Amino acid sequence: MKQLSGIAASNGIAIAKAFKLAVPDLSFEQRKIENPSDEISRLHDAINTSKTELEKIKEHARKTLGDEHAEIFSAHLLVLSDPELINPMTDKIESEKVNAEVALDAVAQTFIQMFESMDNEYMRERAADIKDVTKRIMAHLLNVTFPNPALIDEEVIVIADDLTPSDTAQLNKQFVKGFTTNIGGRTSHSAIMARSLEIPAVVGTKTITAEVNEGDMIIVDGMDGTVIINPTSDEISQYTSKQEQFEQQKQEWAKLKDEPTVSSDGVHVELAANIGTPDDIEGVINNGGEGVGLYRTEFLYMGKNELPTEDEQYESYKSVLEQMGDKPVVVRTLDIGGDKELPYLDLPEEMNPFLGYRAIRLCLDRDDIFRTQLRALLRASVYGNLKIMFPMIATLDEFRQAKALLLEEKDKLVQEGTKVNDDIEIGIMVEIPSTAVIARQFAKEVDFFSIGTNDLIQYTMAADRMNEQVSYLYQPYHPAILNLVNNVIEAAHAEGKWAGMCGEMAGDSIAIPILLGLGLDEFSMSATSILPARTQIKQLSKEELASYKDQLLSMSTADEVEAFIREKTNQ
Ligand code: PEP
Ligand code: MG
Fold first, then answer.
1. How buried is 246 (Cβ within 10 angstroms: 0-12 exposed, 13-18 middle, 19+ buried)?
2. Other residues' Cβ atoms within 10 Å of the Cβ of residue 538
3. Does the pTM exceed 0.85?
4. Quick one: which ligand is closest to 188's CA?
5. In what residue span(s) does the PEP-utilising enzyme C-terminal domain sit (predicted)?
6. What is the position in ligand 1's atom list of the atom closest to the CA of 453?
7. Residues catalogued as catalytic
8. pLDDT along the chain (571 residues), means of 10
């Protein structure tokens, strides 16, 4: 038995065998071959095995994750059947008597370079497909396992250095019981996805991939961040009962599903959910969400080879709005960059991606992409209670420009005779300290604020949210953060606007009493945190908590704040 600790990223206990999602070593040697036709059939075998595998993955992804996720594999299959790519490989084996690995690599590299240097974005995207497919064929030639998360069909715990959001999007909840990674923090997107999929997860263990062998038995405790490798039978029974207790607790929480969120002194606050795709709405409804406080639309743009069309986006937004009925749905416009990449946009690598060309900065620059999204949102607006917010707003000018584009697209649609809802609230995320500091000035122009503490904390504390070595600086209760949050709430209320929070802090049991006391109107969190939060808020008096405000805001450390709240709320 060996125990590791990491960052508790998604609640629940998972006990299953390890499945290592590692990129295999694909290095090879150059050999002179005697018999080219044998070598060519070895290449064809590897291609055919890859084809069968991709067909299976595609079918699997379509069934479990929907057409959108399956599409990427169709593109890969097309590459595998392209004679323009395959024939030069067999020619090379024949004429130069080199082994199949050399021919595959050389021809693939030529095509990749050719496509990458083209002006046409569509053609550049083909380079990414060829790269992926080549790796798969190479793995078969070398007889090494190529991991396919979408193909997992037995109960496992996925072990990886990190999971990209598109890796996570391929995980099938039926079989993937949990995951654990070397890197990442509570607010990295793999962690956020785990919570929306309701899969227990521990991230940032630093060494899990080195410590675990394929097939080892693993326990993941997503509540306290523990991972146990090859547990004893005592540990298995101990964790099995912890798992049962958690399930029972969930049933208790479920009793509050259809109740409003009211504090013990009768004040209503809204508990909303953060979602990534229309499929998440089922979880929001099952967990008693009173709305969607953050729809992260970037997942529509990820895990594929090209930008989503206006119609594709429209269908997704419409589906979310219709499923939520008259409940509010806050859609955030595209927030790409940071740890969320879009390979097909071919953006240059940056030294500090979290401080770089991302979110609204990119959208205002590439207004073709932005306008398409705005049109899709406006068209969908008639199907529910839509609110739109812009991410990473640093200046009023950015907000004004984004709003102007939205209104321009609205006018165009109206002129084209398309119906658009006239009461769409337009707000911003407060994620950048400068915006939190002058929230008063913003409050005059925006309809609402949603505080994104995942980024607000990283920028205020100057601590990369992806770097577990500085994760101790992710301090939501730090008095600097509380003062910024308070400033935003006061500014909103002074102008008769509302203030919400959609960062992870909003679902944190120590932060909830503080935020209730500061007067936060809307708390948006992972769907699975809603019922525990409702249970907690029912026992809290807003009036009492508000009376601690000045004391809390003048404290010196996060520890002091935490100790105070624990004592006052018996935690
Ligand atoms: C945030 O920054 O708090 C937020 C909700 O946005 P994201 O986590 O998607 O960056
Ligand atoms: Mg953010």
1. middle
2. 14
3. no
4. 1
5. 250-540
6. 3
7. 189, 502
8. 91 95 86 93 94 82 66 79 91 95 94 78 68 88 83 90 69 89 79 82 94 95 95 96 93 91 97 91 93 94 85 96 97 88 84 92 96 98 98 98 98 97 97 98 98 97 89 96 98 98 96 98 94 96 98 98 97 92
